[in-house]
Structure prediction request, 580 residues.
Amino acid sequence: MYLIGIDSGGTHMVAEAYEERKRLVQENSGPGNIALDPAGTQRNIMTVLAQVFNQLPVAQCGGILIGIAGVAMAGGQEEIIAAVHRQYAVPVAVVSDADLALLNGLHGGPGVIAIAGTGSIVLAQKATGDRVRVGGWGWRFGDEGSAYDIVRRAFTMMAAARDDGQVSPIEPVLVAATQTSHYRAAVARSYQLDRGAFAGLARAVADAAQTGNTAAQACVTAAAEALAAQIHQALRRAGLPNASVVALAGSVAAKNDLFFSVLRRQLPDAELRRLQGSNAGGVQYYHFPQ
Amino acid sequence: MYLIGIDSGGTHMVAEAYEERKRLVQENSGPGNIALDPAGTQRNIMTVLAQVFNQLPVAQCGGILIGIAGVAMAGGQEEIIAAVHRQYAVPVAVVSDADLALLNGLHGGPGVIAIAGTGSIVLAQKATGDRVRVGGWGWRFGDEGSAYDIVRRAFTMMAAARDDGQVSPIEPVLVAATQTSHYRAAVARSYQLDRGAFAGLARAVADAAQTGNTAAQACVTAAAEALAAQIHQALRRAGLPNASVVALAGSVAAKNDLFFSVLRRQLPDAELRRLQGSNAGGVQYYHFPQ
Prediction:
C-alpha cells in the first residue's frame, strides 16, 4: 500500500507517491489555486493523478491527500473529492496547502509551521492535535514576513525618506526593479502591478540586501522580525516550549539566508527546519479514516 | 471680469464662477478623475463650462482654472486645455485637485493643506511660494488618515485580537458593515471590494466611534494622529511656525468631529480651517499669466 500527496499551489502542482517513507514517483502539472481557477485546479489534479496511476496500480493506493491553495477561503473540496471518486475508488481528503505544509514540516507532531512566500501564515499544532493560527490575513492587513511585506516596507522606506526631503538607498533599487527612471514613476508603476507582480519585486530587494545595501537589509530584517513575533505568539498560544520544532516553508522563509539568520537569532532555542520543494510528502503523516 | 474654477473629483465635478469674492453661479456634473476616465473627464468639463457660459458672457471671463483628480500621476493637461481652447478664447490652466484645494484653503498665502478623503495628501506652501509635499503615496504604502487608512486599521485591529485568541469590539462593526455573519467572511468579503468600496466602510467605523465603541474610536484617533504627524512634518520642512493656517479638506478631515478634535489637540497653535464643499473657489487666488 502506498499514499499519494498532491501540493496544489498558486504557480504549480506536484503529486508524489510514498511507501514507508520512500518516494515512489513524482509528477508535475500546472497551477492549482482554487480561489483563482476552480475548473483549472480540478483539471490539473485529475491530470497528475492519471500520471501517477499510469505508473502505480490504483488498487494498491491507500489514500490521496490534496493540499489546495485558496481552499480555506473559497471552498470547493466536495467537488474535487467527487471528481476523484468518479474515476478512482480510493480514500480522498482535501486540506489547505498550509495544512499540508504543517503535516510535512512537523511530521504529525507538535510545533509551528511558518509559511512566507508571496503571502504568509503561521500555524501551531498543539500536543493534543488542536491547531492555532496567527496571521494569514492577506496583503491588505497582514502577510507579515512575506514577499509582499518586504516590498511594501521598501516602498514605505523610500516614501518616508522623500517625505523628509531625503533619498533612501532603497530608492535606486526600486527604480531599477520597476524599470523606471524616477521615484515617482516607480510608485506609479507599482500601482499598475497586481499583488503577485508587486510581491515579485522582493527578489530585487533581496539581491540588493545580499550585496550590502543597508536599506534593503533593513527591509528584509524587519519582515523576518515580524514573522518571528508571530511564531512566538503561536508557540505561546499553543502552550509549546521555545525549544519546539519550527518548520519554514515558502520562497522567502525557506530560501532567503538573511531572512533565515534573523529567524535563527530571534528563535535561538527552536529546532528550525527549512522545507524545500513541495509539501506533498505531508500525506505520510495524515490519518485517513479506515 | 469674472473667473471660473472647476473642481474635477473622483465622484463629481463642480464649476463655480466668481467676481470680487462673490460667487456668481455654480454648476455640477459627473465624475472627473482623469486617471480613471480621461474621455469622460474632458466631456464633463466641457458640459459644466457650457452650462456656466449659458448664464455668463464668454467675453467677460478672465480665466478658467481646472483642478483635476489623478492629473499629477496620469497627465493629460494639454488635451484638456486644447479642448477648451477649441471652443472658447479664454486663458485656461490645469492643476491637480490638491493644488486647487491648497489655493482655496490658504487663499494664496503660506500654510498647510491636509486632504483626507478616500486617500490623503499633505501640502505646505512656503512664504516664498515654493511647495513641500508629505504623504500622498497611495493606499499600498501611504494615505495616512484617509478613509482607507481607518478601515485598514480596523481590520488590522480585529485580526490582531483574533491572533491573540480575543475578540475586538471592532469585530461586530466590520461583520455588520460587510453584511456577513463571521469575521472570516468579513475578511474574505473585504478582499472582493475595490479600493473605494473598502474605504467606504469607514462610514460604519465612524458611526460606531460616534456611539461610544472604544475600538472604533481608537482607529479614528490613530488615523488622525498619523495625519497630524504629517502636518507637523510639512510645517517643519516648509519652515513655517506652528501657528500657521492649516486647512482641512476631504470627507474625513473636514466632516468627522472626533478626527477633527484629535487634530485640534495635536496642533494646538494652528489656525485650523475646515473646508466644506468644492474647492472651485481656489481660482480666486490663482495668477493667470497676462
